[in-house]
Design goal:
The chain is of the alpha/beta class and about 250 residues long. The chain contains nine helices and seven strands, in the order βαβαβαβαβααβαααβ. The chain binds NADP nicotinamide-adenine-dinucleotide phosphate.
Length: about 250
């Protein structure tokens, strides 16, 4: 398949990690529009993942559900193998799976640090390394990493999460430079406060102070992030690589 015939929609194969819920689900649906083949990866919530697959099909796409804990390198290898066996290639990778284990620095447990760094950063390294090989062979690819605005501006009570997202931005830029000669673009998206299960757990005080820091005065929706992923995955974004696109209502500028 040439890069021209991959032109938006029809026939692109996309792998979205952590797409059973929230932002990942909206991204999966966006990439399905116009006939995309979407791999819906999830950790444990099979019913939620099946609902994403239903929405992917309703949007005109084809869905392949693959349970895999992306913290485990052997599971990442199995995940990528499943995709290649079914579709023969991967055009778009979205590293979206992520978790929070918030707490102040002096009270943070080693296990909270490890879990967040392993899920948000190490897993993205595993999946990117595994997917880079077939993309390099195909001399085509789009890699989009879901970072966070706090990875750029910092946030008290999230030293583990912020370090993981700042690391993901660094990974994005280095991989962008390494893979550019093979026509593979690598970008990051830095969402601000997006309404999902992840932010539902925050206290009303935290949410009020977050709202006051957003010039547009409201949280975003998963679809706001998904639209930006759709653009970066499209042929219109051919000449964009190594960038961090903020989808945050103006929080960081
Ligand atoms: P969410 O609603 O909590 O969903 C998290 C997703 O990640 C779920 O699909 C979950 O699968 C999956 N996941 C977690 N650990 C995994 C693992 N080890 N292996 C495979 N999948 C795993 O989160 P969200 O708010 O949509 O966030 C998505 C991404 O956006 C994250 O990287 C997050 O850091 C980033 N982000 C979110 C916000 C926000 O305000 N919401 C802001 C900035 C950045 P299961 O359903 O199976 O558990």
């Amino acid at each position: 398949m040439t890069s021209e015939s991959r032109a938006d929609g029809m026939g692109k194969v996309s792998l979205v990690t952590g797409s059973s819920r929230g932002i990942g689900r909206a991204i999966a649906v966006e990439l399905a529009a116009g006939g995309g083949q979407v791999v819906v990866n999830y950790a444990g919530r099979v019913e939620a993942a099946e609902e994403t697959a239903r929405l992917v099909r309703a949007a005109g796409g084809e869905a392949l559900l693959v349970q895999a804990n992306v913290r485990q390198v052997s599971e990442v290898e199995r995940l990528v193998q499943c995709v290649l066996e079914r579709f023969g290639r991967i055009d778009v990778l979205v590293n979206n799976a992520g978790v929070t284990r918030d707490g102040l620095l002096v009270r943070m447990k080693d296990s909270d640090w490890d879990e967040v760094l392993e899920t948000n950063l190490r897993a993205a390294f595993y999946v990117t390394r595994e997917v880079a090989r077939p993309m390099m062979k195909a001399r085509y690819g789009r890699i989009i990493n879901i970072a966070s605005v706090v990875g750029v501006i910092g946030n008290p009570g999230q030293v583990n999460y912020v370090a993981s997202k700042a690391g993901l931005i660094g990974l994005t830029k280095s991989v962008a430079k390494e893979l550019a000669p093979r026509h593979i673009t690598v970008n990051a998206i830095a969402p601000g406060w997006i309404e999902t299960d992840m932010t539902e757990a925050l206290s009303p005080e935290t949410l009020a102070s977050m709202r006051s820091a957003i010039p547009l005065g409201r949280p975003g929706k998963p679809e706001d992030v998904a639209a930006a992923v759709g653009f970066l995955a499209s042929e219109q974004a051919n000449y964009i690589t190594g960038q961090v696109l903020h989808i945050d209502g103006g929080m960081a500028m």
